[in-house]
Write a structure and sequence with these properties.
92% of the residues lie in helices and 0% in strands. The protein has helices at residues 3-24, 29-86. It has one domain.
Length: 87
């Protein structure tokens, strides 16, 4: 399972549990709405953090792949140059 799906599933579970907990709590309506709004803001921040982490991870992996590809290309080019020099 990909990291994105795991993060999304965890955040959805947290949001659902929080919403249910807030809705069954014995508070006034205005207080309940404030809590829901705060939890929604917290969820948005959590999603932003998760997406940022995933993007950073993908960028890091891409940079590593690009470096390996560049080294392989340079090695192949050097090998080709050496073969031509031997002729």
């Amino acid at each position: 399972m990909s990291n994105g799906k795991i993060v999304l599933g965890v955040l959805a579970g947290i949001a659902a549990g929080t919403l249910i907990g807030v809705l069954i709590a014995p508070d006034k309506g205005s207080e309940t709405r404030r809590k829901i709004r705060q939890k929604g803001d917290d969820l948005v921040e959590g999603v932003k953090d998760g997406v940022t982490t995933m993007v950073d991870d993908v960028a890091s992996k891409f940079d590593k792949f690009r470096g390996k590809a560049r080294r392989s290309f340079n090695e192949a080019l050097a090998s080709t140059d050496n073969e031509h020099a031997d002729l």
